Amino acid sequence: MSGHPSAKGEDNTREQLLDAATALFAENGIAATTIAQIAAHVGVTSAMVHYYFKTRDHLLDSIVEERIMRFDTRLWELFTGSEMDPIAFIKAFVARLIEGCETMPWLPPLWIREIVNEGGLLREKIMQRIPIDRQEKFRDCIAGGQKRGEVNRDIDPRLLLMSIVGLALLPLAAAKTWKRIPSLEGLGKDDLSRHVTELLLNGIVFSSVDPVADRKRQNRKK
Amino acid sequence: MSGHPSAKGEDNTREQLLDAATALFAENGIAATTIAQIAAHVGVTSAMVHYYFKTRDHLLDSIVEERIMRFDTRLWELFTGSEMDPIAFIKAFVARLIEGCETMPWLPPLWIREIVNEGGLLREKIMQRIPIDRQEKFRDCIAGGQKRGEVNRDIDPRLLLMSIVGLALLPLAAAKTWKRIPSLEGLGKDDLSRHVTELLLNGIVFSSVDPVADRKRQNRKK
Amino acid sequence: MSGHPSAKGEDNTREQLLDAATALFAENGIAATTIAQIAAHVGVTSAMVHYYFKTRDHLLDSIVEERIMRFDTRLWELFTGSEMDPIAFIKAFVARLIEGCETMPWLPPLWIREIVNEGGLLREKIMQRIPIDRQEKFRDCIAGGQKRGEVNRDIDPRLLLMSIVGLALLPLAAAKTWKRIPSLEGLGKDDLSRHVTELLLNGIVFSSVDPVADRKRQNRKK
Amino acid sequence: MSGHPSAKGEDNTREQLLDAATALFAENGIAATTIAQIAAHVGVTSAMVHYYFKTRDHLLDSIVEERIMRFDTRLWELFTGSEMDPIAFIKAFVARLIEGCETMPWLPPLWIREIVNEGGLLREKIMQRIPIDRQEKFRDCIAGGQKRGEVNRDIDPRLLLMSIVGLALLPLAAAKTWKRIPSLEGLGKDDLSRHVTELLLNGIVFSSVDPVADRKRQNRKK
DNA sequence: TATGAATGAGTCTTCATTCAT
DNA sequence: CATGAATGAAGACTCATTCAT
Prior knowledge:
The structure is a homotetramer.
Chain A: H1 13-28, H2 35-42, H3 46-53, H4 56-76, H5 86-103, H6 107-116, H7 123-129, H8 134-147, H9 157-178, H10 189-202, H11 211-220
Helix pairs in contact in A: 1-2, 1-6, 2-3, 3-4, 5-9, 5-10, 6-9, 8-9, 9-10
Chain A binds a DNA duplex through residues 3, 13, 34-36, 44-52, 54-56.
């Protein structure tokens, strides 16, 4: 059993390196992380990183494929097409997104800094791997909801996805330092999830006297 | 007068270097930008950068003080204290934020990557310079609105500021590559401003049959 | 029998590695060839090369002994001593040299770059293995011919061997790239052999009116 | 005067590095010479080499252009075209070649190992810079001599240039180790020049009884 | 035999920084 | 002010070599 490197629970060096790289890239940024740091994190020499990944760029490729894209794929499994109910989808999407980030806390910083933000080092790699028409279908889904009177017509469907990412991921990307601020200490995944969903669906303006909003609120309480 | 480098109209090398540094840091990230690149952008040698800023870290300090903090100060001038009307403030804040980014397009990428995000190279420097109690006062302002029934009580006041930043700044931080996507080409500052304000205030759920919401909408059309 | 790795017809890994190493060293130079390249050429890992040769330097030793020196020994079998007929010996020597290189095309580049040329990586190893007095005997053989009036007295016996090597081996060492030049395409071993022998024996000056030269020429046509 | 780096006799660092590189490449081979060795030879750090030449490959380019090609150009100045007298040209060419190598002793090893020989690291760079038609014109010159009965018709004009290089340069490329052999100690440039010219023109076969050869010999004595 | 994993030493290259001019 | 020359420290990558299996 000890001689079986792929045995469940037994992490081989390659996998450990991938984990360390992902974590350090998320923590300090890709540009600021050296191969030697990654190696040291696992207790091997930097030559080992080259042994497994050949080059720094190949390491990035591996992270994209074996870590980030897996997350992305699982996240979008929910989305079945442009005919979906937009409100229901967004609720589920946000929930899954925030939940997923709990087991993969490296995702928010990586996604924000290295993919979304200008000059992100993974942007191109991710762009090439994301299904071209997904964004379009999502827009169509929202636009459909607007036509049917289910979705606020003053929302721009082209910007909504980015808004969701900004609302859900940015706080998580800031979380580590966040936690150092005393008054934010207690904040947890569920608080964030509730806040984001509420903001996305109903905004900050209070409207409880309104029967429609009341109905909405009741629905929301699952 | 010759000793007054910031004299109006006098575009001296130091100022140009600061501009170039800010722009390049925003574009490629601080860690990925070399002193030589900054110098080349202005047409001088990297020794000049040291002449004016002594060290790389001092250059960062100067950028924080003479660029970023100025932006931040002007942005928060609006905020007069925890007794303000939260809705009105947020509307004005978002407007000013997005407008300000038009003349200082380096702000969103810098803010997102180097300040908010984990491992940001300016985080500590900024933290030390931001008034400690500002965040608290903002939270109190929101909480006050909630008590008075003006603000949605399911919103978390501790998270709202980050939400605003995420909604307004993240799209701008992504803008340069954004623009390459054909269907997003026409998107302008005003589209973003409208979308963000609408989302923040009312969310995506459509509620036009409700007279309160109607009233709200009319108010919003300034 | 299993312990006899050089058994006839048994092309074992060790022999293949020696071949690959010799070929690659000839093609790219010893310094520019890695153990891994040699191993890959045979389809094994570089650890195998160490299994058979222990170290890079030992591999060089093996090549010298089992490849180069065998060639050298066979080449000089012709030379029976300083009393030989110099002209006849040189004719035979050149012929055998060029012929031998056809089955061992790695010899010219190796000999020129790694043995004769300054800084050659095999020079010392070869020097130690070549019979000390051979060069001297060859010189005596030539000097004898000069005394007897058979050999041009303006030739320097100390330099002649090097001249022969330069004439015969250098073109072969350059051959691979040589062949890319269109006008040299047809050039074969026999052309070279004829050219070199003719140049060595009679030089480029035409002297057909002279009866002695005529006699010489007729002799040459075998 | 001391502040004038291009003042006659005062070698600036760049020039010294070029000299050191050329010498070391000639002595040990390009592949076996490190940037640090070159720098150490001049008493600076290896970073300086990159300061002046940016990259190892650029350094090679500079050596080709500022050292080797200058030699080559001066060498071929003698050659005025295919109508030249071949015998006279070859005599002059050999003399100039061997003489030039006395002040530039790095040339023979470099030319033999890195240009002529298979896998030479400068081959491509030199090929691109040598006039395409030069070889052809030289061949025509020889062929013309053969037609006019001045040149031995059994010589192959396509191989002659390589023969000259082999005869003149190979001994020089081997010289440094050569000199360690006691019996070769006294050998000088003039011995080589005489030997090579004699061999090229008349070969090793003695033919003094022949009046034509006699006449030739007299001519040869300048 | 044969391999995969691992390493230490070394190479090229980059870059912030210094300093004399 | 401004530069060119110089450097030390560090980073990515290579490679011969070792060793347990």
